[in-house]
Hints:
2 domains, signal, Immunoglobulin-like, 19 strands, disordered N terminus, 9 helices, hydrolase activity, acting on carbon-nitrogen (but not peptide) bonds, alpha/beta, six-stranded parallel β-sheet, TIM Barrel, single chain, five-stranded mixed β-sheet, binds zinc ion
Amino acid sequence: xxxxxxxxxxxxxxxxxxxxxxxxxxxxxxxxxxxxxxxxxxxxxxxxxxxxxxxxxxxxxxxxxxxxxxxxxxxxxxxxxxxxxxxxxxxxxxxxxxxxxxxxxxxxxxxxxxxxxxxxxxxxxxxxxxxxxxxxxxxxxxxxxxxxxxxxxxxxxxxxxxxxxxxxxxxxxxxxxxxxxxxxxxxxxxxxxxxxxxxxxxxxxxxxxxxxxxxxxxxxxxxxxxxxxxxxxxxxxxxxxxxxxxxxxxxxxxxxxxxxxxxxxxxxxxxxxxxxxxxxxxxxxxxxxxxxxxxxxxxxxxxxxxxxxxxxxxxxxxxxxxxxxxxxxxxxxxxxxxxxxxxxxxxxxxxxxxx
Length: 355
Ligand SMILES: [Zn+2]
């Protein structure tokens, strides 16, 4: 209902007092979960109580929790930057989502999306939800979406594989999973979550050509400027489940990003101190001089040239996935921050990194 009110406010059909900013766009916080339980690896888990606390916090703070398809529609129309929107997503389709999560979602009557790996469901039926359970989730109002068949690192090319063989393998990994989901549950929206949140321009091209909207796991809010082949999500499990810090992220705003260099998050082993540049559509709602970026324990000041900021890392990045987060306060909503996250995956000498 709040979504409808927001739209009517924008169209001037209701006498709303909410300020509406030129060039503004709603920001959506997408939260990412895995296990829901207290007997699973803590690093990828929230308890059912923690999940309930997150939903209660969102509802108490007037966030609309919407489905991904509703979010996509919202972002196609003008909406005020003051909108408070959140999406709940769960990767992997563990059985504990059915056992421990579904009762919580039902209690609070909120939508959520589960990204599943059909081949892994077949290979380890004791670990993953089965189709009947997913059908029950679907009947409740959950969206069941694609996490590939294999849960492989999509950007990794095999040593004996040509680029076109790699493309064929990745395309099949995504499309075969989608076919199995559609056959079991009826045609589903083409939504993908990259395993480990990893992608590169060639992966994005496959995804875009196949008509998918894809989610990664670098942090940051989602707005109409976001790359629809790499939508950020805030991890919300384990140490990230703490609402004292999670609240700041949920409240964050997305920058109007139009271009990012380098295009790939993947770094060769010797690219230990990369730099990156981000071009924005405008900087109207914050003071660029106040932006700070955080890489490991170091704080970095970006350099600005027009609407483009560049960050040069001084400390070497570790092998594996890492993120550089940049934040700056909003002028119009002083209690909210813009949040941009640059993901990296630095390879070891063999071109690989840990899960
Ligand atoms: Zn996963």
